[in-house]
Amino acid sequence: MSELAALFSLPALLLPWYEANKRDLPWRADRQPYHVWLSEIMLQQTRVEAAKGYYLRFLEALPTMEDLAACGEDRLTKLWEGLGYYSRVRNLQKAARVIVQELGGIFPTDYETVLSLPGIGEYTAGAICSIAFNQPVPAVDGNVLRVMARLQNDASPIDDPHVKARVRQQLLEVYPEQAGSFTQALMELGATVCGPNRRPDCALCPVHSICRSYQAGTCERLPVKSPKKPRRTEEKTVFILRCQDLYALRKRPKTGLLAGLWEFPNVPGRLDTDQALQQLSFWGLHPSELFQTLNRSHIFTHIQWNMDAFVLEVREPGGELEWFTAAQIDENAALPTAFRQFWEALRHV
Ligand code: SF4
C-alpha cells in the first residue's frame, strides 16, 4: 500500500477507537470556540491533569469572552499563575478584545481570520476551526508529529518546519467529514497509546495495521529531533524582605521574560552577605535580622536561573518596593514559579 493510501484509512481506523476510548475531559463537554481555544492554549504548556483545574477555575472567573476582554491585568495573571508563558494569557485577552470590540463579540469561523488573532498560530487555529466548527483543517502539534513520524517510519527531524508543513498537507488530504473528532482522535492517540518518552502501546493501537514503524520495529527510535542548543545560565541574588507582617515585591519590566509580573527584588550575580547588605543600603533599606539563605534554580525554555536568596527583616518598608501581606500575595499577586518556590519554601520553615 502506498504511503497516502495507508493514510486514507486512518480516519476509519481511528474514529471508532476515539469514540470508544476518549477521556472524559472538561473541555470536551461542549465545542464552544472560547472553550476549545482556552483549553488548547493551556495544553500547550501543561499536562492534561494539571490543565483541568486551571481550565475550570479560569472559566468560573471569566465565563465569557466579554469577561476575559474586561479583566484587570493582575487578576488575569493570577488566574494563570503557575502555568508559565504569561504572554499567552495576555494574547488570549488581546484576541478576546479584538473579537468583542471589532468582531461584534462573535468568534470568527474563517480560518484565516482566526489565524490573524493575537497569539493564535497554525496549530491553535486548526484546533479551533476543526473542533469547534468541524472544518477539515489539521492541528499539527508534537503529539501529531510523533504519530505521523511513526506511522510513516520517517526519521526526518519533527522540529523542522518543512516536516511540519508536509505532515499538515498529508493530513489535509485525508480529513474526513467528522473533522473535529478526527483532530481530537489524532491528539488522543499521540497523548495516550502512542505517547512520548516511553514505549508505545502498539498492541492496543487502532492503527497498527498501517503503521510502518511498528512493522519495521523502529517505533521506539522515533520521532527524531534536532540536537538542542545548550541553555544559557544566569546567576541572581534574590531578596525576600519582611517588615513585620509585610513582604516586598516589585513589578518586572513591561517587556521581556515574565513581563509585568511580580517578583521578589533581585539583582544579577551571586552576592555574598556583605555585598547583599550594601545592596540593601543602596535601596535605602536597613536590615535588622538575617534569617536564612536559600538556593533555587528555575529552568525556562532557553535560560536557567541559579538563584541565592537572602531572607531578611528590615526596619521600615520603603526602597521603591511595594509591600504586601502574605494573604495579599497569595490572593492577588501573580508570582511566577521562579520566585514562588522561595515563597513556598518559607511557608514550610
Ligand atoms: Fe504508535 Fe505503535 Fe500505533 Fe504505530 S502502532 S502509531 S508506533 S502506537
Question: Brief overview, please?
Answer:
The chain has 349 residues and is α+β, with helices and mostly antiparallel strands.
What are the defining features of this structure?
349 residues, alpha+beta, binds iron/sulfur cluster
Rg value: 24 Å
User: Which stretches are low in confidence, meaning pLDDT under 50 for 5 or more residues running?
Assistant: none
- Number of helical regions: 16
Strand content: 5-15%
Q: Categorize the overall geometry.
A: elongated
Summarize the helix and strand pattern as letters: HHHHHHHHHHHHHEEEEHEEEHH
Largest sheet: 7 strands, mixed
Average pLDDT, rounded to a whole number, is 93
End-to-end CA span = 64 Å
Chemical compounds bound to the protein = iron/sulfur cluster
**Number of E strands:** 7
User: Roughly how much helix do the residues carry, as a percent range?
Assistant: 40-55%
Strand pairing plus helix content: what structural class? alpha+beta
Summarize the helices and strands and which ones pair or pack:
Elements: H1 3-8, H2 10-21, H3 33-43, H4 48-61, H5 65-70, H6 73-80, H7 86-102, H8 111-116, H9 122-133, H10 142-151, H11 161-174, H12 179-191, H13 212-216, E1 232-243, E2 246-251, E3 262-263, E4 266-268, H14 273-282, E5 287-299, E6 303-314, E7 322-325, H15 326-332, H16 337-347
Parallel strand pairs: 1-6
Antiparallel strand pairs: 1-2, 1-4, 2-3, 2-7, 5-6
Helix pairs in contact: 2-12, 3-4, 3-9, 9-12, 10-12
Task: Describe the protein.
The protein is an alpha+beta fold. The protein contains 16 helices and 7 strands. Strands 1, 2, 3, 4, 5, 6 and 7 form a 7-stranded mixed sheet that branches. A hairpin with a 2-residue loop joins β1 and β2. The termini are far apart. The relative contact order is 0.11. The mean pLDDT is 93. The structure holds iron/sulfur cluster. Iron/sulfur cluster (SF4) binds next to α10 and α13.
